[in-house]
Each structure stands twice: as structure tokens, then as C-alpha cells.
Amino acid sequence: MPGTFGLEAAMSDKGKIPEGWEVKRLEEIADVKTGPFGSALHANDYVKSGTPIITVEHLGEYSITRQNLPLVSNEDKQRLSAYVLQEGDVIFSRVGSVDRNAYVSKHEDGWLFSGRLLRIRSISEDFDTKYLGYYFKSESVKSEIRNIAVGQTMASLNTKLLNTFEIILPPLPEQHAIAEVLSDMDGCITSLEKLIAKKKAVKQGAIQELLTGRRRLPGFEGEWKEKTLSDFGYCVRGVSYNPARDLCPYEHNNSFVLLRANNISDEKIIYQNVQFVNKGVVADEQLLLENDIVIAMSSGSVTAIGKSAIFVKTSHRYCIGAFCAIFRSEQNKYIQFLFQSDLYRKMLMSVLEGTSINNLNGKIICGLTFMFPPTKDEQSAIATVLSDMDAEVAALTSKLNKAKFLKQGMMQELLTGRIRLVSTYPIQNEFGISEYMVILAIITKLFTDKRMKFLKHMRYQKLFYLYLVYKKAKTDIFEKWDYGPFSKELAYTVAPKAENEKLYIATDDSKNICIGKNINEAVENAINRGYYKGAEQLAGKIRYKKDTELEVLATVIESIRDLEISQKAISLQTIKEYIGSIPIWKPKLSLEYFTDLAIDKSMKEYYGFFK
Q: d(Cα 235, Cα 293) in Å, to the nearest integer?
């Protein structure tokens, strides 16, 4: 069971921290370095091909962004070798938005960082820099960073301020687990963002095809004709008002809700940050009706002018401000997509070319010409197809927002220890924590020899899983990972305890395991408890299987056991279908060693030996 925050908590200057966690100054665990001074690197040093240098603008919400990366030559990289980044570094904005930071992944290893950044690099083996990256991303810690910044006109950080900044650190296995969970959440968020971007691109392509007649929906024919928007509707300019006299602080019986240009975003109307205006200055035609299109007619940004969204009626009465206009038509469900087309944007840019003020008027909008289908039915059919695409994007966006909200909540709980991922109590299973340590020792003893001196990380995971299956024990400490069943508990709690506390096993620099000083104590313990019975027979069966063979066997067994619980038929086909239904496992079916023959062989081994 996970630990709790209550009785285990201890007091520190940071408030309550769970038992076993500690507070350290950053300088105790990391080296903090300022980027090169401005005199060391100038904009005219940038080249067209070379090594990227990260600046403040590249510190993204989830990772380092790659837009507009300046590049430096190999000569400058060598000259600035002290500022080369390594995977695991964390980089901070030094001035301005001092709470902006990013973790350096393997993809940015070898890049440089600019003078407007600070680099944090681990000097201790007792903490996970990925955990540190998430720690600095939490809202409470970002607030602390802003509070320690100095500067009257612009917030600023320096090495001294960061060096003395205090970090709350859980034990290393728990750091790994927290970073892993949050990294998985980031992966989910990034995947959703990419999928949304892809769906939007598909929709934009459909707009260009369907709204020009280059592609026709089935069942429609006839010649398209060029028409102006005035053939279908008209424009109404927004309300002119005196802010001091006509605006209200809140909604009441003599006011309407006022939408402005900033309430139009991503082709949708945003119903937050609205204002309220006295009814006396609003004409009836300026009140929004269902399916009216709201258009931004004036803006300081040329990219924002002309943006639009369709209005969906609510229980409130809405009107629009003077910098907006309404396009009103019975065909607006179709016309709204014309306002999202590249052609519409090109027309507006042509109208505004050479002007100093970004202003449109109703005459310009109504005078725009487009190709139209010959019938209303075809217009409606096209609008329905594109609306369905919008609905799909909206559903994915809602899922993305929920994932982001969930991640923020998880960060708050995990980084304060209110939720614990690595258990501080014995595992509630057939085997307690000490028993799992004994089993790990058995596996190390049985599966290492002169031919195989060390067990690789992923190999002992599969062997441990197969041991539990063979002993008819529960395997619920294992999760489905891309390389088969994997246990965080085993990796982050059991193995470190077996090495550090009992000396049953030892590890090398790559975290591979081998026989430890007290291995015989573990084996004797195992014999006394009956854990060793049959273990040698298991070793004789699978000792020299390749890692890929173990992966297939463990994956197939896990699939069969799940299918059995669901009372589904077991066959080659149902196992493949089950593996294919799990997103993280589906790519296995394309691996050269994950063949029908290998799956069939693993099925026979399970029923012939393990079952």
C-alpha cells in the first residue's frame, strides 16, 4: 500500500515532508553555471549549419522547442565547450520569466546554452535530474523561484540564488518512480497534441478540397458558380460605447453580455473575460442570433484581423463590441468554413496591403467572392463533414485539457509526498518485500555463471516474472511496458534493498546484477521457506533463452492469463488480437522475432511447463 503523508511527515523550513525525504541546498547536489557573456557570442556569429544554441524562447512547457534555433560553427562550439549541454541538465531562464525551465533530453545532448540561461548539472548520484526537472515545473516551486529573484525593473536569477535554493528530495527509487509517471503523462500529452495538429491539418486540407469543388461528395453534381457573400447575407457592425458610462461591473436586468475581438480564439468563441454593457446603447440587430458569425474587424495584429467564430445561442443575451462585426445568413454553417480557408486569408491580406491600420468594414466582407455549390443540400453536406472533423478535434482537445489538469494535480500530490509511488511498507502479496529480495537472489544465483556473469536489467525482470508464474504466485506488481511485463517495485525498491541492505546481489555501473556477498544466506532462506523447490528445474528450462525469446514468452503468458480472466478463447489469433489492442504492445507484432511461430511456441511452453 502507498505511504501516507500524515503520521510519517516531519517538519522542516519547507513545511511538512514525509519520513525518509530530505531537504538539500541545490549546491549540495548540482553545479550551477551561467551561460556565456554577451561578448563571447554575438548574433553575427550565427551560421546556417552548425550546433544549436538554446535561448529563453526555446524553454517550452514540456520540452525544449526547436523553432528558430540559432546555430554556431564547430569552431565556436569548441571555443565555448564549457557551455555544452549534457542529457540530464536542467536549464533556467536567467532574466525576465525566471520560472521558465526545461530538461535537456538525449536529443539536445551536445547543444549549447546562451548567456540568458543558467545550467544545472548533477554532481551527486543520490538524485534523478529528471525528477529535478519536474520539481522545478511545479507551480509552488515556480512561485518560490519568482520570490527569490532580484531586480527592480526585470526579475533576475544568478548562481548564488539558485545554489542556496532548497530542494525536497525523496529517496532515489521514489525520485525515479515520480519522474517516470510524470514522463508518461508528458508522453500522453505530447501524443494528443500531435494527433490534434494532424487532425487540424487534415481538416484544413479538406477545406481546400471541398470548398473549391476540387473534390465532390458522393451524390452531387452540377457546375459551381462564383458568388459574393452579399448574395447570401449582410454585415452588422458592433456596439459603440463609452467605457466610463456604458459598461457595467456585472450582469443585471438592464445589461447585455459584450463579446470583443479577444473573445475569438482558434475559430471558437471564448465565453470568459467578457464585459457587460447597458442595453440602451445596443440596437436589436446587434444582438447575436444562433449561427451568427462573429468577425474581428480591427486589430493591432495583422494575423488576428478577420478571425471569426460561429455563435451558439445560450441563456444569456450577447452583443459584440465596435471592433467586431456580425455576418448574418441562413448559409452560415457553410460560410463559417469559407472564413477558415487560405483563400479568405489571402483576400484579406490583399485588401490590407499598403495600409497602416488593420481595419475591415462590412462592405469588404460582403464583397468577397467564392465558388459555391449549385444546391443548398451540397453546402449542408460539406458543412456536416467539416463540422464532424471539428467535433473530433474538440473531443481530443477536451481530453488533452483533462490530461494537463490531471498532470498538474499529480505533480502537486507526488512532489509533496501526499501520494507515494514506492511503498514504505511490505508488499501486500503472497510475498513480502524480504521474500521478493530472496527470490531476486535465487534468480541471480541460478541464472548467472561463467557464460553469463551479469543479468541485464530487462532480463532479470522477465526471469522474475516467469518465476512468479511458475510458482503460481500473483504477478500484479508487473505492468505492461513496450518490452513486456515490467515492475517498478522490483527495479526501484527490491533490487536496491537486496544490494544495499542484505548484500544478496551486486550491480555494475550499468545496473546489471550479479551474485552478492550474502547470496548463500538468501539461498538458505529460500530453501527453508520452500521458494527454491522447482527453481532449478525452471532454470534448466529457460536459462539460455535469448532476451527476445524471454520477451515473447512473458508477453504471451501475460496475454493468456488476461484472456483466461476474461473467459475468452485462447488461440494464436486471439492472443495477437489482444496484444494489438494494447497501444504500447501493438508494435511488437511488427518485430522480426515476434512471429506466429514464436507465439505458438510460447503458448505450448506455457501450457506444457508453467501451467
A: 9
Strand, coil or helix: what is 371? Answer: strand
Q: Which three cell numbers stand for residue 117?
A: 540561461
Q: Find the DSSP H helices in 43-99.
A: 74-79
Give the model confidence (pLDDT) of 300-354 as tens digits: 788 889 999 999 988 889 999 999 999 999 999 999 999 999 999 999 999 887 6
Listed in sequence order, the residues at least 6 apart from 402 whose beta carbon sits closer than 8 Å to its beta carbon are: none
The string of pLDDT tens digits covering residues 469-507 is: 998 888 888 999 888 899 988 888 888 888 888 899 998
Query: Is 136:127 a contact under the CB 8 Å cutoff?
Result: no
Q: Which of 401, 402, 390 is nearest to 199 (CA)?
A: 390
- The most distant pair of C-alpha atoms in the chain lies apart, rounded to whole Å, by 93
Residue with cell 519520513: 19
Q: Which amino acid is at 544?
A: Y
The secondary structure element, H or E, covering residue 146 is: helix 139-148
- Alpha-carbon distance of 457 to 489, in angstroms, equals 13
Q: How much of the chain is in helix, strand and coil states, percent to nearest 5?
A: 45, 20, 35
Buried b (16+ CB within 10 A) or exposed e, 545-558: beeebbbbbbbbbb
User: If you search the block for the grid coordinates 503520521, which residue do you land on?
Assistant: 7
| Of residues 126, 140, 134, the one with CA closest to residue 180 | 134
61 contacts: CB under 8 Å, gap ≥ 6: none
Helices 457-470 and 535-542, packing angle to 10 deg: 130
C-alpha pair distances (Å), 166 with each of 24, 98, 160, 380, 580 = 5, 16, 12, 61, 46
Contact 253, 268 (CB under 8 A): no
Query: What length does the chain have?
Result: 611
**Closest to 169 measured CA to CA, from 213, 209, 200, 129:** 129
Helix (H, G, I), strand (E, B) or coil at 513: strand
Tens digits of per-residue pLDDT, 181-223? 888 888 889 899 999 999 999 999 999 999 999 999 999 999 9
Buried b (16+ CB within 10 A) or exposed e, 341-362: bebbeebbeebbeeeeebebeb
The region that residue 59 occupies, defined by phi over 0 for left and psi between -120 and 50 for alpha, beta otherwise, is beta
**Spatial distance between the Cα atoms of 15 and 140, rounded to a whole number of angstroms:** 13
Do the beta carbons of residue 168 and residue 415 sit within 8 Å?
yes
Residue 346 carries which side chain, given as an amino acid letter? K
Cβ atoms of 594 and 600 within 8 Å: the answer is no
